[in-house]
Write a structure and sequence with these properties.
The chain is α/β, with parallel strands linked by helices. It has helices at 7-23, 33-41, 104-120, 135-145, 192-203, and strands spanning 71-74, 83-85, 94-99, 125-131, 151-154, 171-175, 181-186.
């Protein structure tokens, strides 16, 4: 008969899982059993969301210390553009969230961002960057929770240097209307109160 694992080992394993969920995840761990099971068992197949990708200026140059001159395909083109040049998203403040459907903390955080985007109005733009992901899984997830903004896709992780997310996901970056980076949050945001406080601190906008 197999002997049960010592209680101390069970407690240690549980603590490790909680720590990973709280502090974020790296792309190298996206194929682990924990991440894949959660990602695929809790999200039903759903239609994609209808929000178009934002229109950007194709001729806009990169901003020093801000939005890079990177062009990425839209996760769900819909009726909007099929590609977005990040440097061309100037004109209003931007909340840019790097995420992946394989990342458990990202999946926990995304409904918080979705709720904030629904109340933000036209003064604030939200955009996701879906990193090293399966596009179909990503579309199913955002459709299931009704994310009101779109994402661009980075299947090969080419934005790792340009957007500085090598420490792991999720990462949320705040940009002023002129494209300058004014703040950054590494790891999942726990709730609306935390996100609202960051938007107010970095962008001077009260989401109410």
């Amino acid at each position: 008969m197999t002997r049960p694992a010592p209680a101390s080992l069970v407690v240690a394993a549980a603590a490790l899982v909680l720590l990973l969920a709280a502090t974020g995840c790296t792309s190298t761990g996206r194929s682990t059993t924990v991440a894949d099971t959660s990602a695929r068992s809790t999200v039903p197949t759903a239609p994609t969301h209808a929000a178009p990708c934002p229109t950007s200026r194709a001729d806009a140059g990169a901003v020093v210390g801000g939005l890079p001159g990177v062009t990425l395909a839209c996760l769900d083109p819909g009726t909007g553009p099929e590609q977005v040049r990040l440097a061309g998203l100037r004109g209003r403040p931007l909340v840019l969230n790097l995420w992946g459907s394989w990342c458990v903390p990202c999946r926990t955080e995304l409904p918080v961002l979705a709720a904030a985007a629904r109340t933000a109005g036209p003064t604030l733009r939200f955009l996701g960057v879906d990193v090293e992901d399966d596009a179909a899984s990503a579309r199913d997830f955002v459709g299931a929770i009704g994310v009101p903004y779109n994402s661009v896709v980075d299947p090969e992780g080419t934005t790792r240097a340009a957007l500085r997310w090598s420490a792991g996901l999720p990462v949320t970056v705040f940009y002023a209307s002129d494209g300058r980076e004014v703040g950054r949050h590494v790891g999942p945001m726990r709730d609306r109160a935390e996100l609202d406080a960051l938007v107010h601190r970095y962008l001077g906008i009260d989401l109410g």
